[in-house]
Automatic annotation (TrEMBL):
Keyword Iron in annotation: yes
Entry-linked InterPro entries: NADP_DH_HndA-like, NuoE-like, NuoE_N, Thioredoxin-like_sf
SUPFAM superfamilies, sorted: Thioredoxin-like
Pfam entry (one): 2Fe-2S_thioredx
The entry's keywords: 2Fe-2S, Iron, Iron-sulfur, Metal-binding
NCBIfam families the record matches: PRK05988.1
Record-stated family: Belongs to the complex I 24 kDa subunit family.
The protein's name: NADH-quinone oxidoreductase subunit E
Cofactor dependency: [2Fe-2S] cluster
Domain of life assignment: Bacteria
Lineage: Bacteria, Pseudomonadati, Pseudomonadota, Gammaproteobacteria, Oceanospirillales
């Protein structure tokens, strides 16, 4: 993924050009842009509209209908909490309250230091091991409040390169 605060015009242009003639091109284009840029930049909307011969309002309509599309750059790490039934039955509600308090943000927001974006998701395919969350590309099951705190500590200390002193990282290697 590119720098999350800047989007790559050339890459977005290429994605639109390569998909615009496929049937139902709007969603694949939006997914392609978000997967590579981290979000759908507002300036990409007129480009998509022109390529698909649709209005900007129509493109905006699709983006806002599917809540999974972001219109602002995400933080360095994206945390998604499963809000579907099986995870709710296993304590996801208490976990999400803890996560919001820990990060000081609500869903679809990013921490002030740009470290974490918090999003809801509805089933990660890990139902038997709920409550489940996804942190960037990793799905984590049986997440307790303590386990979540360890994950956050791990992610916020890695940049300091303290691996030999970090018990969580050592535990993972064992
Ligand atoms: S219900 Fe949470 S992973 Fe399926």
């Amino acid at each position: 993924m590119t720098n999350r605060t800047q989007w790559n015009l050339e890459q977005v242009t290429q994605i639109i050009a390569s998909l615009k003639d496929t049937p139902g091109a709007m969603l694949p284009i939006l997914h392609g842009i978000q997967d590579t840029q981290g979000y759908v930049p507002p300036d990409a909307v007129p480009m998509i509209a022109e390529a698909l011969n649709q209005t900007r309002a129509e493109v905006h309509g699709v983006i806002s209908f599917y809540h999974l599309f972001r219109t602002t750059p995400p933080g360095k790490h994206v945390v998604q909490i499963c809000r579907a039934e099986a995870c709710q039955a296993r304590g996801a509600r208490a976990l999400e309250a803890h996560v919001k308090a820990k990060l000081h943000i609500d869903y679809n927001n990013t921490t002030l230091d740009q470290e974490f974006t918090l999003e809801p998701i509805y089933c990660l395919g890990n139902c038997a091991c709920g409550p489940s969350i996804r942190v960037d590309d990793d799905i984590v099951g049986r997440v307790t409040t303590d386990k979540f705190d360890l994950i956050v500590d791990e992610l916020t200390t890695v940049a300091l390169d303290l691996a030999p002193l970090n018990p969580v990282r050592q535990e993972k290697k064992a």
